[in-house]
Amino acid sequence: MQSLRSGPHLGAARARAAALVALAVAAAACARRDPPGTELGAAGDPVVVRAGPPSDEVDAGAPAPEAGSEADHLPFVPDGQTRIASLALRTWVYTDVGRQRTRYGYLRAGEVVDGRGPPIVNEGCAGGWYRVNPRGFVCLGKGATLDAAHPAAALASVRPVRGQALPYRYTMASDTPPLRYVRLPTLDEQRKAEGDDVVAHSVRWREHLPVAGVAALLGEPGEPPDALRARTLVKPYGTTQHLHLGSHSGRAAADSGFALLQVVSWESRWFALTTEHDLIALDRTKVVRPSPFRGVELGPDEDLPVGFVESAFAQRLTFDDAGHATPSQSYGRRQGIKLTGVERTGSGTFLETRDGGWVAPGALRVVSRRDSFPSFATGGRKWIDISITQQTLVAYEGKRAVYVTLVSTGRGGMGDPEKVFATVRGTFMIVSKHVTATMDGEDDKSDSYNLADVPFVQYFHKGYALHGTYWHDDFGRIRSHGCVNLSPIDAAWLFEWTDPSVPPSWHGVINKERGTVVNIRP
Asked: Is-contact 239 87, C-beta < 8 A?
């Protein structure tokens, strides 16, 4: 497990630990777990065989490319029979099959994709390399198989949803974190592990639930499917293998977050299967209600300024010819309002809204038009502008703003990121993107966390990333360990807008070209 950003706050009582803390904090902004790939040994020279059927994009009369080379990874028409199932948290997709191969990205456990043979067997992959769409090669082995019905793939068959808020259903650990059961436990096993009142506790938990709301978030629990009735659940390759203590592998850490694949009713309790294939009792968790907050998307003929309501509400006004104001509607807290940039003065100062109304500027956090632009804001090039003091993010195409929202950057504010939880400042480019990624930190037990499947993560510098957030709804205020926290809806939108793009069946990509610029300033 790699802890990239989990150092404690610096204080007088901890001065003698400052040097060690600075080293831990300097490593990066958010801790992340890097599971292994699917390599089976040292890479060797590719076995030269004829490439498979040419893609529609390839001239059928041209010579076939050398099998296993970068020229041999063009998109292909599936044969409908060759299907590759990912069994790992990260089944890597490579540029080629040679000694100097690099990674394009990866598939997630449970994903089943089309493959193209014939397989290329070499010292780097005894199971054989297969081509996948839209590019690259996957090695069959511990992390991938041609058996689409493999138990690990069957358990993880629920795929993350992209483009609309959270990709999975989520819960957070309660004051008594859940046990990680390795199978569906009998009632006797539950009582032995958790105490005799497990059923009564579950009943009390359900009685205090707003049932309709929870059902909408989690779905109605059903009977466990056959894939969940195994003696011991198969975990994805690359997950942490905890020591089994009978029916479970210990208690989850405090402040843990869980992404859920399935919710079932078993022995009078509700259990959920996590993305790491642990079973947890939901009555030991708090169901996540994703933030409804979202930013403002600007149309082709629209531009900044945009205002966000700072207080509980703001009044929209209209003025008659005599200058008398009449309230016409109320804006809710954090609601984004498109403005024209026109001011009205007289009995007070008011800002004109794009729908013809007026609002008092004191009620808003206004994101204004830029007076100047950086050199990279040319043509339609995409870039992101983040202000730490304003806690805002604007997505641009050249000099045109296309999206604006509130964010939460590092709680250290304008402090030194090497010493406190502050967001790094400067100009960067997105270097990798992940539909979800697990983040954890353990250097300071007063501020530890273990957050599974943080949504829509985009790393731009070391461990600093833009990502969605399911554990708080405080956007517009500093809050994070250094990353740029976004609401789930904003993170989903931004993930699909930025470069590099992530193919629909992939879980992540590593930037091989010019990624979207991220500019972070005071």
From this structure: no
